[in-house]
Design goal:
Elements lengths: L11 E9 L4 H15 L5 E7 L9 E7 L2 H8 L2 H10 L3 E11 L4
Antiparallel strand pairs: 1-3, 1-4, 2-3
Length: 107
């Protein structure tokens, strides 16, 4: 996971890329909706955007989750809630996820 210096109160974007097996696309899309519902109550959560793959140029799913601070993003990443959600869909993962916490420029 790559991160930037912790600036309290500065919004960040948590960018997660992962490849999903072809037979898991529908399940993963539904799962992202469930994650979005859970995130609505997470402290510091601002918004979620899911970008599906567009082969052949882009084959990974990209999820952008915006948080009010780096601490809120890290708390979500390290939470038991997220770990349980991941366990529900992990069988469709191909390889590992790529996670970055970036300053949120609002773009």
């Amino acid at each position: 996971m790559n991160g930037s210096p912790d600036t309290a109160g500065q919004p960040v974007a948590l960018v997660i890329q992962r490849r999903i097996a072809d037979d898991g696309f529908a399940a993963f899309a539904r799962w992202n909706g469930e994650v979005g519902e859970v995130l609505k109550t997470w402290p510091g959560f601002l918004s979620q955007e899911v970008v599906p793959p567009q082969p052949p140029a882009h084959v990974d799913w990209v999820t952008i989750v915006r948080f009010a601070s780096p601490a809120a993003a890290r708390a979500w990443l390290q939470s038991e809630v997220r770990a349980k959600l991941i366990a529900e869909i992990q069988r469709f993962f191909v390889g590992s996820e790529d996670v970055h916490i970036l300053p949120d420029t609002g773009v």
